[in-house]
Amino acid sequence: MLNFSGKKSVSTLYIVATPIGNLNDFSPRAVEILKEVAYIACEDTRTSGKLLKHFLINTQTFAFHQHNEHRKVDHLVNILDAGQNVALISDAGMPGISDPGFLAVRAAREAGHTISVIPGPDAATTALVASGLPSDRYCFEGFLPHKKGRQKKLGILAEEERTIILYESPNRLLKLLTELETYMGNDRLIAVARELTKTFEEVLKGTVAELKAEFESRDSIKGEIVVVISGNGYTE
Ligand code: SAM
């Protein structure tokens, strides 16, 4: 849409962080913005529907997830071009961090729109700080590739001197710990942060062998997990 001076409208794409478990971590500003915008682009409209309902947010939503992200970016930019503001949220935490977001921000910036990030929780830095491992410099790797490139990446990470943060699913935790033992030995300090901000939150820290023994002794491993690994050469 062109405005009266013949220029395209400049709208705002809000990138809004949502809780990683505890709903009380949702900021009043985040709620305010989500109520104000014309549309909310959600990674999963059903998952976000529960959050939006809880905070009495009635704004119209549309799906924006990794399978339709490329196609939906155009739709999102068209809305911004038409002079309407949009907020993007993911299922949990900060959009763009192992979640859809980057493509939308890049396209909206290129189209001349304003980007405004409403910061909030993310599992990576929450786990890092809780781990008690050095947090002055760190390296975030998200999920390691499942197959192709995994071994190579583990080999590279073994040399990394900064604290390393990985996301991992509960059913792959023991496999990952075994791989860390193979590639990094048993001298590293590792923290497994599980269910952060939720009722059964725990952050266990120890050597790979200690953590493997602990998790092998459990009937099952459930919940969401971040693994924080001390950098090469770090000792306590
Ligand atoms: N955008 C999110 C963020 O800002 O952290 C991350 C999304 S990623 C698809 C989901 C992964 O984040 C989970 O598999 C887990 O590794 C981690 N995660 C999310 N919530 C968590 C929590 N409450 N406790 C521990 N890890 C969590």
Number of helices: 8
Q: Could you say how many structural domains there are in total?
A: 2
Order of helices and strands: EHEHEHEHEHEHEHEEHE
Shape: elongated
Strands in their spatial order, largest beta sheet: 3-2-4-1-5
CATH C-level of the largest domain: Alpha Beta
Instruction: Assign the structural class, choosing from mainly alpha, mainly beta, alpha/beta, alpha+beta, or little secondary structure.
Output: alpha/beta
Strand coverage percent: 15-25%
CA(first)-CA(last) distance: 60 Å
The CATH homologous superfamily name of the largest domain equals Tetrapyrrole methylase, N-terminal domain
Ligands in the model, by name, code or SMILES, are: S-adenosylmethionine
> How large, in whole angstroms, is the Cα Rg?
20 Å
CATH topology of the largest domain: Cobalt-precorrin-4 Transmethylase, domain 1
**Biggest sheet overview:** 5 strands, parallel
User: What is the helix fraction of residues, given as a range?
Assistant: 25-40%
Arithmetic mean of pLDDT:
95
CATH architecture of the largest domain: 3-Layer(aba) Sandwich
Strand tally: 10
Q: Can you tell me the residue ranges where pLDDT is under 50 for at least 5 consecutive residues?
A: none
